[in-house]
Amino acid sequence: NKQVILKDYVSGFPKESDMYVSSNGTMKLKVPEGSNGIVVKNLYLSCDPYMRSRMIKNKAITGNYYIDSFKPGSKGDLVWGRTGWEEYSLITDFQNMFKIQHTEVPMSYYTGILGMPGLTAYAGFFELCSPKKGENVFISTASGAVGQLVGQFAKLLGCYVVGSAGSKEKVDLLKNKFNFNEAFNYKEEPDLDAALKRYFPEGIDIYFENVGAKMLDAVLLNMKAHGRIAACGMISQHNLDKPEGVHNLMHLIYKQIRIEGFFVFDYDHLYPKFLELVLPQIAEGKIVYVEDTAEGLESGPAALIRLFSGLNIGKQVVFITQE
Ligand code: NDP
Question: Among 18, 171, 279, 321, which has the minimal tally of Cβ within 10 Å of its Cβ?
Answer without folding.
Answer: 321
